Amino acid sequence: GQNIDQPTEMTATEGAIVQINCTYQTSGFNGLFWYQQHAGEAPTFLSYNVLDGLEEKGRFSSFLSRSKGYSYLLLKELQMKDSASYLCAVMDSNYQLIWGAGTKLIIKP
Amino acid sequence: GAVVSQHPSWVICKSGTSVKIECRSLDFQATTMFWYRQFPKQSLMLMATSNEGSKATYEQGVEKDKFLINHASLTLSTLTVTSAHPEDSSFYICSARGGYGRGPPETQYFGPGTRLLVL
Fold this sequence. Notes:
By secondary structure, chain A is an all-beta fold. Chain A has strands spanning 3-5, 9-13, 18-25, 32-37, 44-49, 53-57, 60-65, 70-75, 84-91, 97-99, 103-108. Chain B is 0% helix and 50% strand. Chain B is built from no helices and eleven strands. Chain B starts with a strand and ends with a strand.
C-alpha cells in the first residue's frame, strides 16, 4: 500500500529553527509537495522537490532523498504566524497526490 | 495565475436538502479539479477527480449519487451534496491543476473551502 508518515505535532520557539520530517512509500514517484494549512483554512503551496537535494526559498527549505524515501521541511527564524499544519504529499506514478496526515506546528513565544 | 475561488464559504441547511458548492479557477483554465473533504484535526480526504466535459472519477467509498460533480467548463466545477444529513457536515475543499503559480504544472491550488453544517 501507499503510505506517508510525518509527526503528528511539534512545538518550537519563536526565532528558532524546526525540521519537519516526512517518509513515504508509494507506487512510483513524480515529486513531493509541502503545503501549509492554517486552522480553518485551505492548504497553500510551499514547495516542490523532484530531484535529490535542498531547495531553499527564503525562511523555508525543503530537502529530498529519493533513495531513502525521505523529505524534510526546514523553517528558520520562526514567527508566530508559522503556527499551522504542514502537509507532505507525494505524487505517485499515476500523478495522484498521496497525502500525509499533516504535522501541527505550535510556536511558543 | 493560480487563484481558485469557492462559494459559498459557509452553509447551514436542514437535513434532507441539497447543497451546491461552486469551485472556480479565476485566472487560469484548470485541466483537472479535485474535491476533498476534511474532518477536524484530520488530513485531506480526496473524494473525486473531475475533468472538464467528462464524468468525475470517485474514490472508493464515496457515493457518486450522493455527491454529484459537474465540471461544465475549464473554469467551473460544482459539487452537489444531495439529501444532506448531519454526518455530511464537514469542510469541503476544491483544488485545481493547470495554473501558473509558484509550483510546477502538476501543483494543485486550493480554494478557500466551504464549511457545511447540516442540522
